[in-house]
Design goal:
By secondary structure, this protein is mainly β. The protein has one domain (7-125): Ribosomal protein L14/L23 (Ribosomal Protein L14, Beta Barrel), CATH 2.40.150.20. Helices cover 9% and strands 33% of the residues. The protein is built from two helices and nine strands, in the order ββββββββααβ. The protein is globular and about 45 Å long.
Length: 126
């Protein structure tokens, strides 16, 4: 359950480290984001001389959340942090990540939602 003004870890190698969510996409009254939801965020801290700078506004997909997420088989999965992966602004493929490496485990629901490239770059799909 990630909402406006939530701080999230950025789980890719774009250079951004921490981001602040300021909009959850998907309807005018949608307040909380869960695994697989697209959000708009502002970069709060970033590494120098990388492809993403501080204060940059980007779109990202939520790949990990602290709140337990119920799967279709009835089991629950939860992670240690709230994390997102930054998406590219490429118009022909909106599911394309901006980075070329993903850090940490990724749930299989991300792959089922159409983010196959994120699933293939992740070190572990749980």
């Amino acid at each position: 359950m990630i909402q406006d003004r939530s701080l999230v870890v950025i789980a890719d190698n774009t250079g951004a480290k921490v981001g602040r969510i300021f909009k959850v996409l998907g309807g005018s009254k949608k307040r909380n984001a869960s695994i697989g939801d697209v959000v708009i965020l502002s970069v709060q801290s970033a590494e120098p001389r990388k492809m993403v700078k501080k204060k940059e506004v980007l779109t990202a997909v939520v790949v990990r959340q602290k709140k337990a997420y119920r799967r279709a088989d009835g089991s629950y999965i939860r992670f240690d942090d709230n994390a997102v992966v930054i998406l590219s602004k490429n118009a022909k493929d909106p599911f394309e990540p901006k980075a070329n490496r993903i850090f940490g485990p990724i749930p299989r629901e991300i792959v089922e939602l159409g983010y196959q490239k994120i699933g293939s770059m992740a070190p572990e799909v749980v």
